[in-house]
Amino acid sequence: MFNTIHHVAIIASDYNVSRHFYSELLEFPIINEAYREERHSYKCDLKAGESQIELFSFPNPPKRPNAPEAAGLRHLCFGVKDIHKTVSKLDKKEIKCEQIRIDPYTGKKFTFFKDPDGLPLEIYEE
């Protein structure tokens, strides 16, 4: 029935900070960006492999519950070829990752870091 995940939508508390984080630091290319006057909101589409990240701004969005086990989207995960190279590259950009762990079910390496709003992001070695 479903073939892929087309996109994931993120609402940023500070659009410019998050736009810089995702497009410049994480290096997701911008596909399209628009200001939607009627909503007082920016929308930026970023290419993430075969999927997209939609980055939004809205006036005064409510804060995200911070508990990692809260109901709703738990985290967003990006697949990488070499987790150690990726962590090193993020570290050079002053993006701190947790310690690399091993998934006990798959034997694959993974770790987490956070975006400017504290959204948990995972990298998983494919």
From TrEMBL:
InterPro entries in UniProt: Fosfomycin_Res_Enzymes, Glyas_Bleomycin-R_OHBP_Dase, Glyas_Fos-R_dOase_dom, VOC_core, YwkD-like_dom
Protein name: VOC family protein
Entry GO MF terms: metal ion binding
VOC domain mapped to chain residues: 4-126
Keyword Metal-binding: yes
Top-level taxonomic group: Bacteria
Keywords in alphabetical order: Metal-binding
